[in-house]
Amino acid sequence: MAKVDQLLDGDFMRKLEQLSLVSRKIFAGRMKGERRSKKRGFSVEFADYRDYSHGDDLRFIDWNAYGRLDRLFIKLFMEEEDLHVHLLIDTSLSMGFGAPSKLEYAKKVAAALAYIALSGLDRVGVYGLTENGFLDFPLTRGKKTMWKMLDFVVNLPCSGGTSLLTSCKRFAVRHPGKGVLVVLSDFLDKEGYEQALKYFLYEKMDVFVLQILAEEEVHPTYVGDLKLVDSEDSDVAEVSITASLVKNYEKNLRAYCGTLKEFCTRHGFNYLFAPTSIPFDQLVLNYLRSAGLFK
Amino acid sequence: MGHFLYPLAFVFAGVLPLVVLLYILKLKRKEYVVSSTFLWRKSIEDLRVNAPFQKLRKNLMLFIQLLLLTLLIFAMARPFLKMRGFEGQTLILLLDTSASMQATDVAPSRFEFARRTALTMVDDLSRGDKMMLISFDAKASILCSLTTDRALLRATLRGLEPKDTRTALREALVIARSVAQAQEHPAIVILSDGAFPDVNEDAGEKAKAHFVAIGERCKNVALTALEARKSLEIGAGCQVLARVENFRAEPAEVLLELSLDGRLLDVRTVKLGPGDRRSEVFERRDVVEGVLHARINVEDDLAVDNQAWCVLQKEQDIRLLAVTEGNYFLEKVLRLDPAVKFERTSPKDFAAMPPDRVRRYDVIALDAVTPEKLPDGNFLCFNCVPPLEGLKSLGPASYPVILDWKRAHPLTRFVNFSNLDIREAAKLVVPKWGEVVLESDQTPLIAAFSKLEQKVVVIGFDIYASDWPLRLSFPIFVSNTLQWLSGHTGQSSARQVAAGDVLAFVPDRETVEITIVNPQDKAVTEKVGEQRRILYGGTDKVGVYRVKPDQGAELPYAVNLLSPAESNLAVRAKLTLGEAEVTVTKEAVVANREIWGWLALVAFGILMVEWLIYHRRVWV
Q1: Which residues of chain A does B39 touch, with a Cβ-Cβ cutoff of 8 Å?
Q2: Position B589 pLDDT exceeds 60
Q3: Which of A35, B216, B400, B598 lies deepest, with the highest CB count within 10 Å?
Q4: Can you list the domains of chain A with their CATH numbers?
């Protein structure tokens, strides 16, 4: 449980409490634990009337209205459904960089989102994407599962390479249907991210793409003649760090992020650039809210 | 051959491959694990495309280090360049300021050329090199003691003017040598035209001497002598002798003008062959006193020797008192000169004569009379030993044989003693302050004594005990003696001083101060001290100097160059100082200058650049 403590230190817990309060505010005045669905159907909450047509369920005829108006009306209710929140965390070796590491940052964000979602009585599932699939904490509901979920999140190992395509494909196959999907990754995948993200498109999910990058990746501070070794495939790049090289690297990084963002926008995904320099709670409360992850 | 003083240092070139090796070893890059190399890879490729010199740039540090090391090795090998300037860290510059340096064969003048050369040498001084300036003409003077202050050296050189004097290198050389003894790597440089006699002094063992010969040709006609004297033949008037000398290689025709106090007396055309000299004699009955000015009209390179002055004094009466019992030959010879006012008295009367009366006579001739005490005045003593300090007689000497006489002494002008026979003479002991004029194998025969106010000539034998009265030398000697004793010479030489020499003047008792006005009308006033002797050294320019006592009449003095050595503008081809022959150059000498300091400085600069690049390349 040491790792849980490490992640969920006092500071973090205090921030989670704040988030919980904030989320309570968000959901105040609404039916607890449930979200409105765009579908009108059978529910407690009345939505509208419509004329009876042949074949309608007689149980929903408003007989009082018929008495007064001598017309048959069908009562329409808001359909209530469980919201499925899927939190996908990239656990490849590349996520282990940075101080704090990107993975740790992703875990914190995921934990916070899970906490908020659980507080909202949504169904939450957490998935650790690995090289050839994913580790999952299947959809659960209720705050009582919070600790178990946190334990899962904390113990997600950092290993292997990135293969977004494989893991996303498997996830999509296993989890059809609608819901909110949050992908937490650095998207530094040599195979590309486009194919992988397109799987979510077919599922008509509400997709949030969070690109997490460490500070040393955004603004490298290396000096001298270096042999850069890739953490995942041990690829070697020999560089002599010069100002122009660093400048060029930063330009490339910006271009890369820009392309990802453009891809997301084109496909109706929400893209968010999340360098680890932004405190995670701020990210959750300000940025994700403004992006419409929750109201 | 061999532009390095220490070529062995090139052994260190073996270190160069070591640097390359170290650099290769250094290039084993530090491994650094990053999350993903793919952005880096992309960036490197971009940069490679953009910068084809990337590879070269990677090796820039290696090149810089190799260059640095190469420079240091070169510096260690102590390379030198052949550069203008003199070797040595201490330069002692001897600059000729004599009359011949005014020659204009080297435009604008030899002196100006020497000055410019000296200024160039000041400019060529390396940092920390010292220089000393000594000028030499008739005398040497230290203008600047050893200094590194170039501004001072330049200012001193610019303020220097040539003089109209002879050249005396010896004194300057002695100073330079003594200074050089105490210095590290001294060099003595003589900037001169070499118009001076050979010097029997060397530059010392330590110093290296250089002689920069200035001058191109010898195109000069000069007046080398001007003298006037009372005419011997015609009784009144004077004879003027002027000598014109042609130093050119081609014949010359010059106009010789003679004027008295500004009035032209005579003009003669003098024709001279190459190297000829010709004496012209002017005889003038009407010229008795005044300042004679001789001038030659000629276009040549040196102007200062084209004129000369001569002061002609009016002949004055000589009041003479002969103290004798009767001496036929003596009286005859003393009366010979019409200017001599002759009086005679007996020894008894002379002994009783009061001193102020004795002082009225210019000369007192004593004939075999020895007074107990010599009163003030000038004495000519025949056959007696006057009571002078240190003068003694040791008894008679028989048949002394004439050995020699002082030919340069005024008393012996035109006198030949060689046919004089003497039977008996006194054996004289002449003290050091006296001067032996005529010397025999046994004893001095004639001696001259000169104190401040008293002149005495002692003739130590009886003229009757010799054949002297029958010889031609007798009247001439007596005439010379009377003129010397009385100070009234018919010669112009008494008021003639060579430029640069000291003008000595003994004023009267009454004179308190005198003023000396030079040819440029600049006056110097001097107080007459205890010694009652005025010594004036400012005779740098030729011309007439006027000495004005506060009492009495103005006395002109002629200051002339009249030096054939100075007027001969031929450039010296070799210079021997003592035993050693000094190399002669036309320009400032080419010397070896070590440049390792510069190399080290450049290496240091490169080190700085390397440091800068190493640190800056992260940002540049």
Answers
A1: 188, 249, 252-253, 256
A2: no
A3: B400
A4: 4-13+81-214+269-290 (3.40.50.410), 23-80 (no CATH)
